[in-house]
Design brief:
11 helices; 355 residues; binds pyridoxal-5'-phosphate; Aspartate Aminotransferase, domain 2; globular; alpha/beta; 12% strand
């Protein structure tokens, strides 16, 4: 091996869900929103003057940051924006997780956390969930270099209470605690831990436009925290790339936030379809923890999850499956439109009848 190759930063990358090239596939595999973004986004996009592309965007993305601050009742200096929450969380790892102590996250969780820890050389420990896929705050109250978990958790969809999360935050006043709220909008109002930001300087709450705001393709994520945390993150961001948010994205993101009615309507439709999916899947013998997100982590009856996954794929219905211990018994099914879900139930009936 040449000298340089011995010094390459070697990592096993994160594997995202498949994005098929062909059309006509029912795509329930990456937790995208089945509905388009607000019509206000289309108007903002159509009004964009391509001549402006020659100019750099505002490095502080102030129009978008301002709209986020207004939406959540915080100061713009408490908001950090990035290219999807993956970018935001990666920046947070780089900024805050520099100690020799391991960072802590659940053993069953978003599979990007260990990848970032590896790429940045951060020691980490996976903390087992309880039998019901819950987080026990006691497991996190010990010396650590930081804590991160999603709420609701992925891929389980299980929501933890604010009281439980507050125990974790107050139990680790010497570490930054990141709560990844990618799916919180599907959990009902008042479930976010954002109100705790004014009480705990060490809490960083991360959210995204990719799921509840139907804009996965535009790549917008943000973090809200104390001014101190956000300042540290911006210092790192401006040392890597000042212009992460492009002009079109800034405009479209701000427009999406202003259309509260559309957002609430779309989220309500998905929640309704999800609740119906719980009865449909239960009736067919599926077992699943109660989901408060836009997906259901369900264990099929009669057949291994791997077989059901392959059979659905043959019928052009894509869901997510991980060939790993414990989670390999389950399929993660994104909540689509009612029509898409009906096609799924029909396909499941065929597959299970043959079994
Ligand atoms: C989808 C997801 C993200 C990342 O979403 P972006 O598209 O990068 O905003 C982050 N965390 C969890 C748990 C997710 O499921």
């Amino acid at each position: 091996m040449p000298y340089w190759e011995n010094h390459v930063r070697k990592v096993v990358p994160y594997t995202p869900g498949e994005q098929p090239k062909e059309s006509g596939i029912i795509k329930l595999n990456t937790n995208e929103n089945p509905y388009p973004p607000s019509p206000a986004v289309k108007s903002a996009y159509d009004a964009f003057d391509c001549a402006d592309m020659r100019l750099y965007p505002a490095p502080d993305a102030s129009e978008l940051v301002g709209a986020i601050a207004e939406t959540y009742g915080v100061k713009p200096s408490q908001v950090f924006v990035g290219v999807g929450s993956d970018d935001v969380i990666s920046m947070a790892f780089m900024t805050f997780f520099g100690s020799d102590r391991p960072i802590l996250f659940p053993d069953i969780t978003y599979s990007f956390y260990d990848v970032w820890a590896e790429v940045y050389g951060i020691p980490y420990e996976r903390v087992p969930l309880t039998a019901g896929f819950h987080i026990d705050p006691k497991d996190y109250i010990r010396p650590n270099g930081g804590i991160i978990f999603p709420n609701p958790n992925a891929p389980t969809g299980v929501l933890e209470s604010t009281e439980m999360i507050e125990k974790v935050i107050s139990g680790s006043p010497d570490s930054v605690v990141i709560i990844d709220e990618a799916y919180i909008d599907f959990a009902g109002s008042g479930k976010s831990v954002l109100p705790l930001v004014s009480k705990y300087e060490n809490l960083l709450v991360v959210q995204t436009f990719s799921k509840s705001r139907s804009m996965a393709g535009m790549r917008i994520g943000y973090a809200i925290g104390s001014e101190k945390l956000i300042k540290y993150m911006n210092d790192v961001k401006f040392s890597v790339n000042s212009y992460t948010m492009n002009r079109v994205t800034i405009k479209c993101g701000a427009a999406a936030l202003r259309d509260t009615a559309y957002f609430e309507e779309t989220v309500a439709k998905i929640v309704k379809t999800r609740e119906n999916a719980k009865s449909e899947l239960s009736a067919r013998g599926f077992e699943f923890p109660d989901s408060q997100s836009n997906f259901i982590f369900a264990k099929p009856p009669k057949l291994p999850a791997k077989t059901v996954f392959a059979e659905l794929k043959k019928r052009r219905i894509y869901v997510r499956f991980w060939d790993k211990p414990v989670i390999g018994d389950y399929l993660r099914i994104t909540v689509g439109t009612d029509d898409e879900m009906n096609a799924l139930y029909k396909a499941l009936d065929e597959i299970l009848q043959e079994a």
